[in-house]
Amino acid sequence: MLPSSTTGAPADTPRFDAGRPSLALLATTHPAEHLLTPAALRTWITTTPLVPSGTDLSHVDPAWLPPFRELRDHTARLTEETLDPRTTPADVLAEALAHLNARARQAAPPAPRALRAPDGTLVRTLQAPPSCAALLAALARDAVDLLTDPAARARLRRCEGDNCPLVYLDTSRGRRRRWCSSELCGNRERVARHRRRAALART
Asked: Which of 53, 112, 122, 141 sits at 20 to 30 Å (Cα–Cα) from 88?
């Protein structure tokens, strides 16, 4: 199992805990396209995290961008159907499912190994720099695990912020999480609520 995703946004924006790497991939379209350059993709891969800190990703090149965006689009269609059934045409869903399954079986995810750090602790690294196919397989398998698990599907939420499309896995106590980020949409809602109370008080 992959570690949980911590962000779907560039490093200079508030962090968004999607709960799963495949959901973090969906967030790379908001508020604008993030995966435009190899450098942006390298940053996203390392902050998700799909790979351990310090992994060599210098081999990521422009050819990696289209397949990551394609997997993202197909995963988004299947996730949307899970959240709001019968909103996507059946042929589109069939194509998305076929693509997801093909990516999941196309390659093995990056192989991890443990190394002894100078201080004696064990640290996680990879056997070799990850290939594009291996990382796509890891994301596809994560999406398959997520979308076929009834308990996980029941925890899928869309942010309640105005015009925010972000989707996350609600692992909060009592399943009461409402926003993608307390710093972003949560804070906007609190400000809006304060303004409404102030307007009522004035009238």
From this structure: 141
pLDDT tens digits, residue range 15-47? 678 999 999 999 999 999 999 999 999 999 999
Pairing of strands 122-126, 112-116: antiparallel
Q: List the helix and strand counts (H, then E) for the chain.
A: 7, 4
Domain limits of the chain? Answer: 21-202
Of 35, 110, 2, 95, which Cα lies nearest the Cα of 27? 35
Query: CA 96 from chain center: how many Å?
Result: 17
Amino acid at 37: T
Look up the CATH number of domain 21-202.
1.10.3300.10
pTM for this entry: 0.85
| Residue in the structure block whose two tokens are 């790497």 | 21
